[in-house]
User: Fold this.
Amino acid sequence: MNKIKVLAEEVANRIAAGEVIERPASVVKELVENSIDAGADSISITVENGGKDLIQVIDNGSGMSPDDALTAFERHGTSKIRTVDDIIAISTLGFRGEALPSIASVSKLTLITREADSELASQVDFWDGQLNNVSKTAANVGTTIQVRKIFSQVPARRKFLKTDQVELKHIMNYLHYQAILFPNIAFRFVVDGKERLHYPQTDSRDARMQAVFGTPFLDADWIRINHQQSAIQMEGYIGGLEEEKSSYADYRYLFINGRYITDKIVQHSIRSAYEPFLKKNRSYNQGNLPPYILFLNINPELIDINVHPAKSEVRFRDTQLVFGFVTNTITNALLDYEEKRFNRSASGEEKNSENVINNIPLRSENDSDVRTSNFGLRNSNGNSEPRFTSYRKPFGELYQQPDLFTQRPVLKGGEEAHKVVPDQQDISFFLPSEEDLVNPWQLHQSYIFIQVEDGLMIIDQHAAHERIIYEKIIHRLHGLAAETQKLLFPIVVDIPPYISSLVMEQIEQNLEAFYKVGFSIKSFSGNSVVIEEIPIEIEDWEGGELFIEILKQFESEYETTEDFRDSISKSVACKAAIKAGKKLSRKEMLVLINDLFACQVPYFCPHGRPLMIRMSLNELEKRFKRLI
Ligand code: ADP
Ligand code: MG
Assistant:
């Protein structure tokens, strides 16, 4: 008996939707890419409830003829390729002809579109895959697509959608990439009735970068790249070689032929170009790449983008060619940069002093106190020589102990942090005595070695300081008084739009909590806030840049925990804590150790990683084979 039947188009579309349309952000992506392919230079995106209830994209592109407005919804209906050969040299973002029928099969979709030479626009409505209406209407030239109630008829998929905030984040990420890629297109993004982003159309890539990343972007230590060699062209920005920490350190963007792409070969080329220049830089040795925002354009014939349904990966036809080109281009740029830097210092020219202007000095209630103690590693009783407290402060007596402290930290993968230290009640057993602490020793300006009663203890200085600050802030959020330092002048922090669009609401709703953390935030206008006071722990405020860093971190912490207090405490702790690689004086080490042992959970950083390792004499003796 014959059993095989060809699936009805409706079923096939649903199946395709499973691949192409994973979440609201996929709909935004497909619609916006269609608008770009249609030559639009103004695209407006509106969403409601994380896109679950409404996604609307309006463009001023070419529009469609009345017939095309229907053919567009046929499976594989596309104006972008005709023959198999065309797939080899695709210059548009779309080509599979699957997006519109897929979206229409899982939502209530309305298309209104008008070409320049038509007087009226065509309107087409689909309800969960069924054509519901075809009519004429008045509209501007271009296309409007409205997608309502995505997955309402596919409960299995709807169930897998995350919170509105998370879905919004995915949409924002995508729009963020498009904004960087296409300065010549104006983007407007409206979320639940509020305009969140507005990037005006511009001819200048620099201007768009400033619009997206904030005005100080161009002042950072960037090296410009612009190089072409026959079939490949690359432009953009790569991080310079200044040692100081750049607030753009984690900016890594690669765009190939107009798409955001994750590609190992290009990453590898960047790394190998930087390697000879950065031997001594710790961060790169740890495996981090320098920052880069690169736009690579390759003759479409040399690249296969049809590897991944969402087109987020590519395959190069000639890997060596790409590797060589990227490595050489970056190497030459770095050589050139080094040479200029060398000539500059040889001619006695000082590095620009802009950064100095940004560093507005801090004033505190007790100025000398903050100044003499580095990074807020302050001895609570104010003695110049810190004294070791051999017991933990009874926080529990001050107020109800927050749950956070009673829980055993959990490592990322959900696995319980393995025991590196004895149970908490055993702490007195290996607390260093004052005598032991006479000579703490710092290894590679990152780890502190101290002698304890029965052996050796190694402390990760950054993680330890993070823990200390984290607990202090959690305590403040649970009722202890805020400890702030007043800025000499209130400072206006311009939050880059792509961050503010995600966190501004949180700031507005949690002003009081921000104050308890230590930030007194006074007024708002657009993406700017005025800050008058900052937490006492912050040593280097970087002219306000640090606040942006904290918000960035907060945003990603919040995405995983959805716990405001925990996320903000972790973010401030992480950004205000002393870094690995920072030389500490003996006194600073002692204060750090002292404060650490006053913590409720002195063993783990706020993310649950161990922050100290203990090695007993016994263990040493075993390793030296004195003991068997
Ligand atoms: P693809 O983009 O892969 O061709 P889609 O299903 O996304 O497939 O779109 C089908 C066709 O509909 C496109 O090829 C294009 O001709 C037309 N189209 C879709 N969106 C627009 C738009 N915003 N403006 C003009 N034409 C559009
Ligand atoms: Mg498309």
